[in-house]
Specification:
The protein has one domain (3-122, 196-261): Alpha/Beta hydrolase fold, catalytic domain (Rossmann fold, 3-Layer(aba) Sandwich), CATH 3.40.50. Helix content is 42%, strand content 16%. The protein has eleven helices and seven strands. It has helices at 3-6, 69-82, 95-106, 135-147, 149-161, 167-179, 182-194, 198-201, 221-229, 246-249, 251-261; strands at residues 10-12, 18-22, 44-47, 88-93, 111-117, 207-214, 234-242. α9 links the parallel β6 and β7. α4 runs antiparallel to α7 (182-194) and α5 (149-161) runs antiparallel to α6. It starts with a helix and ends with a helix.
Length: 262
């Protein structure tokens, strides 16, 4: 099976240059449906599902390969090669921001620029570093998720989304979590929340944009500022959007920030 089939790659637009959109944990490419079409006139848009999400091929899941974010980065490199993508703009939400970082380090010419939406290189506090969670909090989160994935989804999705005055957004994220294969989601959650990509940031050479949301419980302000400080050629933009998913809650603001950069 090709990577284009495995990852349910969808290509639209007619531009010479490509822009690749990558979704976060518990989501799929539908999370970009309000953002990606805005770039189809000027770019070839490339959307895909990580293995285990959306309409990806679940049989392609390999617990050894996907035990680290590097396995997901390998998929990203492979699907970009099959799609003829080079010198592209990459837009990664949440954990996919770090997956994009790893892919750019594996193949330096694959992306001309990186857009990181709510990125975090390390979710756990470590000495002077603030990741937003203690080790105990992450252990409890993963234990709750492992014991009752559906209950975890119903409890966590609205908090992650933020915007309590717009409950339909939290409901959509809950439903997205519930559509993800539970066993793969449990493994992906552990890989996501236990990862540490702080050193990788310092090796990035392409220009980067960090989009930091307000009131984001997953990637607080200090994390966005840390990412910006540790990327050699980066711009930090603070969005008015609240929560962790501005691609759903504030697509127009997200589009404008990306367009001004790419």
């Amino acid at each position: 099976m090709t990577a284009l089939m495995r990852n349910n790659v969808q290509i639209q637009g007619a531009g010479e240059r490509a822009i690749v959109f990558a979704h976060g944990f518990g989501c799929d490419q539908q999370m970009w449906r309000f953002v990606a079409p805005a770039f189809e006139e000027d770019f070839r848009t490339v959307l895909f599902d990580h293995v285990g999400a959306g309409r990806s091929d679940l049989s392609a899941y390999d617990p050894i390969k996907y035990a680290t974010l590097s396995g997901y980065a390998d998929d990203l490199v492979e699907l970009c090669r099959e799609a003829g993508v080079t010198g592209a703009a990459f837009v990664g939400h949440s954990v996919s921001a770090m997956i994009g970082v790893l892919a750019s380090l594996k193949v330096p010419n694959i992306f001309e620029s990186l857009v990181m939406v709510g990125p975090s290189p390390r979710y756990i506090n470590d000495g002077a570093y603030t990741g937003g969670f203690t080790s105990q909090q992450i252990d409890e989160l993963l234990e709750f998720l492992a014991d009752n994935y559906m209950g975890w989804s119903a409890a966590m999705a609205p908090a992650i989304m933020g915007n309590p005055d717009r409950p339909e957004l939290g409901a959509e994220l809950t439903n997205s979590f519930c559509r993800t294969d539970p066993q793969i989601a449990k493994a992906f959650a552990r890989v996501t929340f236990m990862s540490d990509n702080r050193e990788d940031l310092r090796r990035v050479t392409v220009r980067s944009l960090v989009l930091q949301c307000s009131d984001d419980i997953i990637a607080p302000r200090q994390v966005g500022e840390y990412v910006h400080r540790n990327l050699k050629n980066s711009t930090l933009v603070f969005l008015k959007a609240k929560g962790h998913c501005p691609n759903l809650s504030a697509p127009e603001e997200t589009i404008a920030a990306i367009r001004n950069f790419v």
